[in-house]
Specification:
heterodimer; A: alpha+beta; 2 domains; seven-stranded mixed sheet; four-stranded antiparallel sheet; B: alpha+beta; 15 helices; 13% strand; elongated
Chain lengths: 402, 438
């Protein structure tokens, strides 16, 4: 084919071509970097939690007044809740995983405070705790009922004989070695034995890089606010929430049932910044791609109108329709490719800025070729309709004066 | 003449409705996206108490473990909160013009009328100077004085919303309220007071409204009030009573001072060091001296109140604006060049270069202004979306006049810059050549 008309057309409007190429370049830089951030956030939100999030209900109950007995209240609440058909298991806990509120501690494999400890989230719940969250024990055993006692704020109990830890925490503490049956030491240097290992369970703080580190102590925390974790049969959650709220509310007026909510809602709240960022960036890149495509359509359409006579002349001199379409497509391809080259440099620059200024993860370079291909396809689609219109110009136009 | 230019601009815009619509849309979307993110950034980084931000300081004392720093990532930092007993001691010295020790708690409010239900409300447990120090506006009554605080009298200052809920918004000063079995006298009601960011407690969230009422710090001991904010500890201590908790090395009290002038800073730190040196003799504060005070701006930086995400969004959205401007330039250029014939004719009929240039600039300014207006509507929409996505209190992200003018300014100036080169190209079209080919 003859590149002559194409190149001369481009040269005639150099500035226009450069502008579009620059636009394509900046578009590429924004789209690739944004897309990468979106993918990271979505992956973060979709991590396997090890918890049956969809079927868990969380209730906060708080008593008041001098006659209030917190141990009675918790015992009655758990019994009442478990008598509701559809409830699988229930426990009182010191904190709720994924909720953003929790307690942390440090564990050591040797009783020496000068050695750095391994940080972990810490929970305390009954022998029904695992079942109440749908968390699976991969090895060892659960707490025995006789290991579980009520613990009041003033109790300051000794370290429990038996604890459960997650595989992530086991790896952090013992590396390759088998953690089951081993002893770990708390900040007080009191020992506890690992009796069970949980394959996976997320702790409270979703933005923490050690989210998978969890240790569980046996006990029923009898604090001011009682946090109850309830698991129900699949599909029963939304129907049981009002039932639980009503049952608890009527049973004892000397307290406030603060909220009965799905764990899913608490988790979504913890992830709202990530979800917000992913949604905002998705909107931004949709607008951007839409705008760039429309501008290419608009500019090409305008050029077609401007060059009607030239196109007609070419057609009169024997150029086929396909030649005209090819001319416009190639012209556009050349501009897009030029833009893509500048775009790669810009993308890397923006990625570098994000990585160094905001500690974002380094851009996965495989996004670059994907981005370029997407741009090619997009700009070709955008240019196709006006190019077809150009091809429809009759050769007779050449004989007319404009 | 200007009117004629505007008339010509509209005429030219109508001739190419698609091109015009694209240009307006490009500017509108560019302004919409970039100003939305800029407004969020502006809100997050704004000075919550401009008249005093240089005289107010957060106080930190390094009471942490001798074995390791409070924050491994920033080992030079002391803990960001104080132990209860240190805070109490500093309050009693009263070395600054004003000082306040505080934490966040929650209490059950028992029903005033039998048919109401009890409910939980947040309370800031704080010392006397809080209201004067942070310029809290009162509707009724006032805070409490030092004697009331010293005597641990149960008084409460209600937030506007809580007063509405409990007393229908009336002047409730002198009324009584039962919380956790204790009768509190209402001392005052404050007007809406939402400094943004919530500079006095960024530790527990810089962008939320949680203070429903305020009660004296001395009640902590009497009512055994626990903190709902974060507490941190390093020492393994036996705690089997509330008193032991108050005397523990756990840090959970926020401490602020007001100095006469920002210059009194060194003197106050020297006072802190003297206190800590004395404590060292008792075997506490085993780390090297590291006591600091931070003014409001420094305290906001310390807690990275402006989220990285907000900065990233501002950066990316201004690149977006660049794309929109490049579009505008490309579209303007193409359009003006398409008007070669008309321009040649006008030049041949005597229009000077300046006239042509001015007319082109007016045309892009009109387009920029229209784009800016639509952009502002998009910003309003965008901010509502962000409030929804981030679950922030309604009206927290406001769009004020500064931002409206900035948006319109950016729209017009940038579209004119975008129009400069094309206008220059157009006014250089010679009068005759274009006519010849006709």
């Amino acid at each position: 084919m003859n590149p002559g008309p194409m190149v001369s057309a481009l040269l005639r409007n150099k500035t226009g071509a450069i502008l579009v190429a620059l636009q394509v370049a900046v578009t590429l830089a924004i789209v690739i970097n944004s897309l990468y951030i979106i993918v990271l956030r979505v992956e973060k939100m979709n991590r396997e939690t090890g918890i049956d999030v969809a079927n868990v209900i969380i209730t906060y109950v708080r008593g008041f007044g001098d006659d209030f007995d917190v141990v009675d209240s918790i015992t009655n609440d758990i019994n009442l809740i478990k008598s509701i058909p559809g409830v699988v298991a229930a426990t009182v806990s010191n904190h709720v995983p994924l909720s953003g509120s929790g307690s942390g501690t440090g564990l050591r494999t040797v009783a020496d405070l000068s050695i750095d400890s391994i940080s972990t989230a810490r929970y305390r719940w009954s022998e029904e705790g695992l079942d109440s969250l749908g968390v699976k024990l991969s090895r060892g055993r659960n707490f025995l009922p006789e290991e579980v006692n009520f613990i009041r704020p003033e109790d300051d109990p000794p370290a429990p004989a038996s604890i459960l830890i997650t595989q992530d925490l086991a790896d952090a503490l013992f590396g390759e070695e088998d953690a089951l049956g081993k002893t770990v030491y708390w900040g007080s240097l009191e020992p506890s034995t690992i009796v069970g290992i949980i394959g996976r369970m997320h702790g409270s703080w979703v933005n923490w890089d050690k989210l998978g580190n969890v240790v569980i102590q046996p006990g029923k925390p009898a604090y001011t606010t009682n946090k109850l974790i309830i698991r129900v049969e699949p599909g029963m959650r939304d129907e049981l929430i009002p039932v639980i709220e009503e049952t608890l509310g009527e049973s004892n007026r000397a307290r406030v049932v603060k909220s009965v909510r799905p764990l899913e809602e608490l988790a979504a709240r913890s992830y709202r910044r990530d979800r917000g960022m992913a949604i905002i960036l998705s909107i931004v890149i949709s607008l951007l791609i839409g705008l760039t495509a429309l501008v290419i359509v608009g500019l090409t359409a305008f050029h077609v109108t401007q060059r009607t006579k030239q196109i007609g002349t070419r057609r009169a001199l024997g150029a086929r329709r396909i030649d005209i379409i090819r001319q416009f497509m190639l012209e556009n391809w050349l501009i897009t490719t030029m833009g893509a080259f500048i775009g790669v440099v810009l993308t890397v620059a923006v990625a570098y800025w994000l990585e160094t200024s905001f500690e974002l993860e380094r851009l996965d370079w495989s996004y670059l070729p994907i981005g370029i291909v997407v741009l090619w396809v997009l700009s070709s689609v955008a240019v196709f309709a006006p190019a077809r219109r150009a091809a429809a110009v009759s050769p007779a136009v050449a004989t007319r004066s404009v | 003449m200007f009117k004629y230019d505007v008339k010509l601009a509209f005429k030219s815009m109508r001739r190419n409705p698609i091109m015009t619509a694209l240009m307006v849309a490009a500017i509108a979307v560019g302004i919409g996206v970039s100003m939305t993110t800029l407004t969020v950034y502006y809100m997050m980084s704004s000075n919550p108490i401009p008249e005093k931000s240089d005289e107010l300081f957060a106080v930190t004392l390094d009471s942490w473990s001798p074995l390791r720093p409070f924050d491994d990532d920033n080992p030079e930092r002391a803990p960001h909160q104080l132990t209860y007993h240190d805070a109490e001691r500093l309050l009693s010295f009263a070395e600054a013009k004003r000082q306040v020790a505080m934490f966040e708690s929650s209490l059950i409010i028992e029903p005033v009328k039998a048919e109401d239900l009890p409910f939980e409300a947040f309370a800031r447990v704080t010392s006397t100077d809080f209201f004067a120090m942070f310029d809290v506006p009162f509707i009724h009554g006032s805070g409490w004085d030092k004697t009331t605080d010293a005597a641990a009298e149960p008084v409460v200052v209600l937030g506007k919303q809580l007063n509405e809920k409990l007393f229908g918004g009336e002047n409730s000063v002198g009324n009584w309220l039962t919380m956790e079995g204790t009768r509190f006298r209402v001392a005052g009601v404050i007007d809406s007071w939402e400094p943004t960011p919530r500079f006095y407690d960024p530790i527990n969230g810089a962008f939320q409204e949680i203070n429903e009422m305020f009660i004296p710090l001395s009640l902590t001991r009497v009512l055994e009030l626990s903190s709902v904010g974060s507490d941190w500890g390093w020492k393994s201590e036996e705690i089997t009573s509330f008193e032991q908790w108050l005397n523990s090395e756990a840090v959970w009290i926020q401490y602020f001072i007001e100095l006469e002038t920002a210059g009194g800073r060194g003197e106050y730190v020297a006072h802190l060091n003297a206190y800590v040196n004395e404590q060292k003799k008792l075997g506490r504060f085993e780390r090297p001296l590291n006591n600091n005070i931070y003014n409001v701006e420094e305290w906001m930086d310390y807690h990275e109140v402006v989220a990285n995400d907000a900065k990233v969004l501002v950066g990316l959205s201004f690149l977006f604006l660049v794309v929109c401007l490049l579009s505008t330039i490309a579209l303007t250029l193409t359009k003006f060049i398409g008007k070669k014939a008309e321009t040649s004719l006008r030049r041949a009929l005597g229009a000077s270069r300046q006239t042509i240039f001015k007319q082109q600039i007016v045309e892009v300014a009109v387009i920029g202004f229209s784009g800016g207006l639509i952009g502002l509507a998009l910003v309003t929409l965008g901010l509502q979306g962000i409030e929804y996505l981030y679950d922030s209190p309604e009206g927290m992200v406001r769009f004020d006049w500064v931002m409206v003018l900035t948006a319109l300014g950016i729209a017009i100036v940038s579209s004119m810059i975008a129009g400069l080169y094309p206008a220059w190209r157009v006014c250089n079209i010679p009068p005759a050549t274009q006519l010849k080919t006709q």
